């Protein structure tokens, strides 16, 4: 379970995002990270039951660093105010569309999908929607999927993309430049004994969409 002290650390870090405070409170970070890693390891072991390609994935390779890359950012705060994990074969750097778990005070979520695709990937996505829209629609418009992920997120064109008619029957889907889904959870939900089961259920529901994208972009699900 995710413990309250982990959220307490993240709140304190958000209010004191500097190296001096972090160094003085390193023990708080170490404890929060340990709690997060243990929880993610429990999740990963159960994910392997429905994601066989994850068989040799280790949790240490799923956890993102808390340090921010500030080289090209106006915000020079040195630390992220969240903890995060990317669940994919081999970890967060799998190169595939994977499950992303984000833990933050009042902003925790599970999600995944087409986020900042390359021009080539977006072209493939639109071509697939144009030629075989029913495959995608059967996934994201199913009752179970909409129950768990009722909203589509991502940047969207105001008009039809180049090469597609404004009156295309699936123009609403074709206008998306990104298409990802997430489910937010309150701190109390995350700290509850049943949260791991809830998280895993959302991941199972999300899986067909991630498989769809991975097959489309990389030729593997």
Question: How would you characterize the overall build of this protein?
Answer:
The chain is an alpha+beta fold. It has one domain (4-218). It contains 9 helices and 4 strands, in the order H-H-H-E-E-E-H-H-H-H-E-H-H. The chain has helices at 4-15, 19-24, 26-47, 119-131, 133-140, 143-148, 171-174, 187-191, 195-218; strands at 83-87, 99-103, 108-114, 179-185. Strands 1-2-3-4 form a 4-stranded antiparallel β-sheet. Helix 3 (26-47) packs across helix 9 (195-218). It is globular and about 60 Å long.
Distance between the termini: 30 Å
Report strand %.
5-15%
Order of helices and strands: HHHEEEHHHHEHH
Q: What percentage of residues falls in helices of 4 or more residues?
A: 40-55%
The chain-level structural class is: alpha+beta
Largest sheet properties: 4 strands, antiparallel
Q: How many separate helices?
A: 9
Strand order across the largest sheet: 1-2-3-4
Shape: globular
Mean pLDDT: 96
How many structurally independent domains?
1
Regions with little confidence, pLDDT below 50 for 5+ residues: none
Give the arrangement of secondary structure elements:
Elements (H helix, E strand, L loop, with lengths): L3 H12 L3 H6 L1 H22 L35 E5 L11 E5 L4 E7 L4 H13 L1 H8 L2 H6 L22 H4 L4 E7 L1 H5 L3 H24 L3
Antiparallel strand pairs: 1-2, 2-3, 3-4
Helix pairs in contact: 1-3, 3-9, 4-5
Features:
45% helix; 9 helices; alpha+beta; globular; four-stranded antiparallel β-sheet; 11% strand; 4 strands; 221 residues; single chain
Short synopsis of the structure:
With 221 residues, this protein is of the alpha+beta class. The chain contains nine helices and four strands; from the N terminus they run H-H-H-E-E-E-H-H-H-H-E-H-H. It has helices at residues 4-15, 19-24, 26-47, 119-131, 133-140, 143-148, 171-174, 187-191, 195-218, and strands at residues 83-87, 99-103, 108-114, 179-185.
């Amino acid at each position: 379970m995710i413990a309250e002290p982990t959220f307490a650390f993240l709140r304190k870090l958000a209010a004191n995002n500097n190296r001096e405070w972090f160094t003085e409170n390193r023990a708080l970070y170490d404890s929060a990270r340990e709690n997060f890693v243990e929880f993610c390891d429990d999740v990963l072991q159960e994910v392997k039951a429905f994601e066989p390609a994850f068989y040799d994935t280790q949790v240490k390779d799923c956890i993102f660093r808390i340090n921010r890359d500030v080289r090209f950012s106006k915000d020079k705060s040195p630390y992220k105010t969240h903890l995060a994990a990317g669940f994919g074969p081999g970890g967060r750097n799998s190169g595939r569309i994977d499950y992303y778990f984000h833990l933050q005070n009042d902003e925790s979520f599970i999600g995944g999908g087409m986020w900042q695709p390359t021009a080539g990937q977006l072209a493939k996505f639109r071509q697939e929607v144009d030629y075989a829209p029913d495959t995608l629609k059967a996934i994201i418009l199913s009752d179970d999927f909409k129950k768990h992920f009722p909203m589509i997120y991502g940047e969207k064109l105001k008009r039809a993309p180049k090469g597609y008619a404004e009156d295309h029957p699936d123009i609403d889907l074709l206008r998306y430049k990104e298409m990802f889904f997430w489910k937010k959870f309150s701190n109390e939900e995350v700290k509850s004994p049943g949260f791991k089961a809830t998280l895993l259920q959302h991941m199972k529901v999300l899986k067909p969409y991630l498989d769809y994208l991975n097959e489309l972009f990389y030729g593997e699900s």
